[in-house]
Amino acid sequence: MREVKPIWTSSSFLVYTGGLTVLLGGLLALGYLSSHYGSGGIAGWALLVLVVLYGIAHAFRLQGRRIAAGVFAFASVIAWGVFVAYLFEWWGWLGPHESFKHWSWGRLGLELLILAAAVDDERRFGFPFIRLIAAVVGWFFVIDLITSGGNFTAAVTLAVGLLYLAAGRAVHRPPSFWLHLVGGLLIGGAILYWWHTSDAEWAGVSIVAFVFVALAYATRRSSWAVLGTIGFFAATVHFVAGSAGALAGGASGLGSGGSCTATAAGTVCSTAPSISAWSPALALGLLGFWLVLLGLLGRRFRAAAVPPPA
Questions:
Q1: pTM, whole model, 2 decimals?
Q2: Is pLDDT above 90 for 185?
């Protein structure tokens, strides 16, 4: 089926919000029922939720309401995953204490079935939003299959993010947006896992954020610019808070933010980290000008890339 490229309007916003709210209501209902029924009973209720949502999706598709159909198809994929999870738990394939660090055929099978449903429904309904489920579950299946946490998981996450970036560049269709978004989150998450303590590491995060902005212009996907901006803000907060901590650590007696307490052994003074009143204002002001400069440079880049009319 030809893919839908939804235009963000008041109508589409309400359809998205309404459909996802119905899904949330169904999940909350299952959570309530799980305390009143055993594994088999709750699996039956989950099947009912799945049938209702999938039926509504097909009813809207037959009426030609493709955005509403796609939203409920998205919800039905989530409901399918919940149903299969309860079913596997009923059969004893998902132990109550299984964790990510332990191999589980049941968990891998659950992930594959969700991935298969997402791929099939995206093809059937032509709705790009469903690609989000496929991208997230695909990443989780890979790390669940070959890693058990730690640096290797972060390295595999980075590799999957780069693969999504390459796939998004190669596929110029609406679903590529979700590949770019999830790929950026995976790459950024892996970088932050490694670099989040020292000033040098946060300087590296700032460099990666600049690369993200460059990717936004190269790929024409604003999600990279949004993630890059988040990286710049996070680095700025670190440097402002870090300078305050260093200031407090080097102070003696009653430094800025210090206090003294009278005890039986005498008076004890301590120094608490504080931030100079002008530091956040200056840092945010400079960051704001930097972002404006990047935006203006991007406009010049786009103008130079578009040939003048003949």
A1: 0.83
A2: yes
